[in-house]
Design brief:
Layout: H1 12-15, H2 21-34, E1 44-47, E2 52-58, H3 59-69, H4 75-87, E3 91-93, E4 107-110, H5 125-137, H6 147-159, H7 164-179, H8 183-200, H9 231-236, H10 247-254, H11 261-277, H12 285-288, H13 296-320, H14 326-347, H15 377-385, H16 390-398, H17 400-405, H18 407-419, H19 423-437, H20 443-455, H21 467-476
Antiparallel strand pairs: 1-2, 2-4, 3-4
Helix pairs in contact: 3-4, 5-6, 5-7, 7-11, 8-10, 18-19, 19-20
Region (Disordered): 270-296
Domain DEP: 37-112
InterPro entries: DEP_dom, G-protein_gamma-like_dom, RGS, RGS6/7/9/11, RGS6/7/9/11_DHEX_sf, RGS_DHEX, RGS_sf, RGS_subdom1/3
């Protein structure tokens, strides 16, 4: 789903598209409560020896307000909530790029609503380049570029080498407009713009709360919007460019101050010179902003919603419809019932609990029932006499597994295999079955014994194995386990 870059005064319908709009709504309601002049966080102007720090509050005041108004008793919970608010850019530390909160006297400031993440900002690299270039023009210690910002500026300068003159002119125009502002106002706007970029271009190692991976999947269908324009044009003509991320644009969106005719003429001349050099990079707001319903991303979203609604309706209709005929269901159930009854009638003669041995119902006329008599001939007669009872022979006829599970059956099959000169195959198979069920400490011992007896070139009872299976078996023996001989068996 494509998410358009929205204006600061975006409608509720537009903001509802964002996947995190519920989180933003809850956080912004809390921030609005904090901004209450009477019951909110105490915001003040701190006086120092040579300067004033306007519109700040301390981390201690914020934590105390959260614990008091949110009914929290654990300090860790209050710190976690404050970290969450700061990581989304609703408040920031005035002299650090890391968006966290400390429970001390560190000063913080609230972000202007123009830069709140609910406005669905998606600033481009060119906007970031203009901001960093403007920072290099301000000869102040607190506005110097950090190491990671200097690296980003070098990368952007290499990326936009052909447009760098235009970017520099934009930054210069914004810098001239900012210089005309009041000192405290300029100080606040500079810090808010820096905090905005700390959220969207975070310090290496910090969490980026603006990453939504699936938004990148549909960027091919997103309309192309113009990059940031001169802040002078935006502020002096009372036109807030919808996608400008400069502090001047934020100030124009919040207050829209009027400018003198001289400033307006100077800004107009600057903008005309820029547009004459780069006509394709500047688009008037009336040309770039299309109606909300005509944006490709929104149309795709609407089609997706319609498709999902149709699918839900189809599934609900299928739930109410009997897609399987009752006759087919009854037929299958009857078939399974008949099959089970036939299997039961066929196997019940071998169960001594259903048909007691030695009674008239016992068709094999075997020895008396050992559970109600003192004799055990029912189990020991075949071993003692060497004769195989009719019951056991009929049971072997049922399946080969019954023969192999019976000790007398294996002995009988072993004798027959020895006569056919293939007795080693059955012994090898039986040793492999014992290997699967032996104790862990006995596995290496049994593997060695089986290999020496059946697999080795000098084995006493070698089995016939093709070359591919032999290679696989030797590969398995490098790390012997219970299943080393499964391919050979």
């Amino acid at each position: 789903m494509a998410l358009p870059r929205l204006r600061a005064n975006a409608s509720i319908e537009e903001k509802m598209i964002h996947p995190n709009h519920m989180i933003y709504q809850k956080l912004e309601n809390l921030v609005q409560t904090m901004l209450d002049p009477e019951n909110g966080v105490p915001i003040k102007t701190v006086k120092s020896f040579l300067s004033k720090i306007p519109s700040v509050f301390t981390g201690q005041d914020l934590i105390a307000w959260i614990m008091k108004n949110m009914n929290m008793t654990d300090l860790a919970d209050a710190l976690h909530l404050s970290h969450l608010i700061a990581s989304h850019g609703y408040l920031f530390q005035i002299d650090d790029h890391v968006l966290t909160v400390k429970n001390d006297g560190t000063f913080y400031r609230f972000q202007t609503p123009y830069f709140w993440p609910s406005n669905c900002w998606e600033p481009e690299n060119m906007d970031y380049a203009v901001y960093l270039c403007k920072r290099t023009m301000q000869n102040k210690a607190h506005l110097e570029l950090e190491d990671f910002e200097a690296e980003n500026l070098a990368k952007l300068q290499k990326m936009f080498s052909r447009k760098w003159e235009f970017i520099y002119m934009q930054a210069e125009a914004q810098y001239r407009v900012d210089k005309k502002r009041d000192r405290q106002e300029r100080q606040i706007l500079d810090s808010q713009e820096r905090a905005f970029w700390d959220v969207h271009r975070p310090v290496p190692g910090c969490v980026n709360t603006t990453e939504v991976d699936f938004r990148k999947l549909s960027r091919s269908g997103r309309p192309k919007y113009s990059s940031t324009t001169h802040a002078a044009v935006a502020s002096c003509s009372n036109i807030t460019l919808p996608y400008s991320t400069s502090a001047a644009a934020a100030h124009a969106a919040a207050q829209a101050p009027s400018c003198s005719s001289s400033i307006l003429n100077g800004a107009a001349n600057s903008s005309s010179s820029v547009t004459s050099q780069q006509p394709s990079s500047y688009v008037l707001p009336s040309q770039s902003v299309r109606p909300y319903s005509q944006r490709p991303g929104i149309r795709r979203c609407t089609r997706l919603q319609d498709t999902l609604k149709q699918e839900i309706s189809a599934l609900e209709a299928r739930l109410t419809k009997n897609v399987l005929k009752t006759s087919k269901v009854v037929e299958k159930q009857v078939f399974h019932l008949i099959f089970y009854l036939q299997y039961f009638d066929h196997r019940r003669v071998f169960d001594p609990f259903l048909i007691q041995p030695g009674t008239a119902a016992d068709q094999f006329q075997s020895h008396p029932n050992p559970w109600i008599s003192d004799t055990v001939d029912y189990w020991q007669h075949d071993k003692i006499t060497g004769d195989i009872s009719m019951r056991r022979l009929k049971l072997w006829e049922e399946s080969f597994e019954e023969l192999l599970c019976d000790e007398i059956g294996r002995e009988t099959l072993q004798k027959f295999s020895d006569k056919e000169y293939s007795g080693e195959n059955l012994r090898f198979w039986w040793q492999v079955q014992k290997l699967r069920k032996c104790a862990c400490r006995m596995v290496p011992v049994l593997v060695t014994e089986i290999y020496n007896e059946f697999i080795d070139k000098n084995a006493t009872s070698p089995v016939n194995i093709d070359c591919k299976v032999m290679e696989q078996t030797e590969e398995n023996l490098k790390n012997p386990n219970r299943w080393s001989f499964d391919e050979a068996a």
